[in-house]
Amino acid sequence: MTANQPPLVTYDRMNDLVEVVQKLSQARTIQSIQDIVRIAARRLTAADGATFVLCDNDQCHYVDEDAIGPLWKGQRFPMAACIGGWAMLNRTPAVIEDVFADDRVPIATYQPTFVKSLVMVPIRTTEPIGAIGTFWATKRRPTDEEVRLLQALADTTAVALENVRLIDGLEGLIKLRTSELEAANKLLVAVNTDLLAAHQQSDRVFAAYAKVLPGTVLDGKYRLDEELGSGGFGVVFRGQHLTLDVPIAVKVFRPVPGNDSSLELQRFLREGATAAQISHPNAVRVLDSGVSSGGVAFLAMELLRGRSLARELDAIGPLSLRRAAIFAATVADVLAAAHRQGIVHRDIKPDNVFLHHEIDGQEVVKVVDFGIAKLFAGPQSAGDQLTRTGEYVGTPRFVAPERVRGGPDDGRSDVYSLGAVLYEIVSGASPWTREQERQIAAGVVLDPHPRPIQQFRPGVPPEFAVLIEQALVWDPAGRPTAYDLAVALAAMAPGLDDRHPGMGRAKLPDADVTAILWR
């Protein structure tokens, strides 16, 4: 080792590199990366100067420097006319012991400067995006350790730059989506003023129509009795199947503005056709559907007594772990049956899971409302393609991300929705923070990982928590099928705690008789 040769890398330099790596991992702007790199490069190699270069098409842009005298900060040079360009073009470090004895160096450029020796390393050796250089005022050859340290700094800088690019792109997309939503909201406010009167008038007309319907007999088969409830899609009546002499529920189509087209009528009738294809004791049974000779569109269904899972949660709060697993396993089994028929439900949520009470008091879980179901197996007919282009229909908190993005919509999206439901009935909370939910609605999520469920309910066994998290995996391919989820939950349920967590809310009265929920 000569008098001018520095010692090998020290433990302190390695500690410095680790500290720099940590700082770069937290950098969120190009400027902050530059500030970290220009100081770190000089310190790691005990150099008299350092420079930070970025590739700008076919030029090298010397964007920053830290030196004992001014060099080339802010200037641009052709890629082939500078050492930074040489390092990028050759994808390898340029180690130069004497700048005036190396034919790669444009000597005229260096003569006015203090620089006598240098090393320049590419930022990323595959498809370089820049370079980092250090300079010395004396003639010396940088050690191999110094070159390795500088290259390690450059590799970390490449990752930091890519992170900033990704974050900038995501933030830009979120801002774009936000501005689009704001513009759409302004339009809706303006349009709503004109539509409000029409809606109010239609509501009055339909309310009067619904009051006349009790006592009506549809096609000599179904008598409508008292109204059980109404919603945006229809009115549900307690009815009587006159041929079989059994009580039923009859759902009548509600034609109001925004819901009065032939497409909406087809969607309404498709609920019956879709549900009728699913043969499962825990799927609501649709007995008949159609348009009566008097022009009333209807669905005749089994009458359910009890209340929805949503009302159950409002009444008692989170469920026992065993009861939650049994409920979810039952729903997953229904979904598996639907998926085998090429049907995806697309609106799994607590409102659409019903806790039906049999006459003997036994509680039976029922999956209801196949109103926005979609056939996904094989070619689709025009009747299957009833979702408007560019729309997703469903409840945002439970909608799978691929549906928001407009990607493939198959059975895995139902598994995601069920995972969100299971998380909620176990913990009493959403898997996502409010910020994540806003990002999900915008179709962009920076951190697609649900909050640990033990944060809200510490006693959840790890294997149960992992199963719930698997159902909420962002990539559909990483989720279990509905069948696999049903099997896993059914196997796990007997070993789970059956005690109520004691996190209940004010008791709500049971609905004496509640029929199918509607949207």
Question: In summary, what is this structure?
Answer:
This protein is an alpha+beta fold.
Could you please describe the fold and organization of this structure?
- There is one protein chain.
- The protein has 519 residues and is of the alpha+beta class.
- Helix 2 (30-44) packs antiparallel against helix 5 (144-212).
- A six-stranded antiparallel β-sheet has the order 3-2-1-6-5-4, with helices on both faces. Strands 7-8-9-10-12-11 form a six-stranded antiparallel β-sheet, with helices on one face.
- The longest helix has 69 residues, at 144-212.
- Helix content is 40%, strand content 18%.
- The radius of gyration is 33 Å and the shape is elongated.
- The protein folds into two domains: 11-168, GAF domain (Beta-Lactamase); 308-519, Transferase(Phosphotransferase), domain 1, CATH 1.10.510.10.
- The protein starts with 10 loop residues before the first helix and ends in a 27-residue tail after the last helix.
- Mean pLDDT is 80; it is low at 1-9, 378-392 and 504-519.
- The protein has helices spanning 11-25, 30-44, 83-90, 107-110, 144-212, 262-276, 309-316, 321-340, 401-405, 411-427, 434-442, 462-471, 482-492, and strands at residues 49-56, 59-67, 76-78, 94-96, 117-123, 130-136, 217-218, 222-230, 234-241, 246-253, 286-291, 297-302, 306-308, 343-344, 353-357, 363-367, 374-375.
- It contains 13 helices and 17 strands.
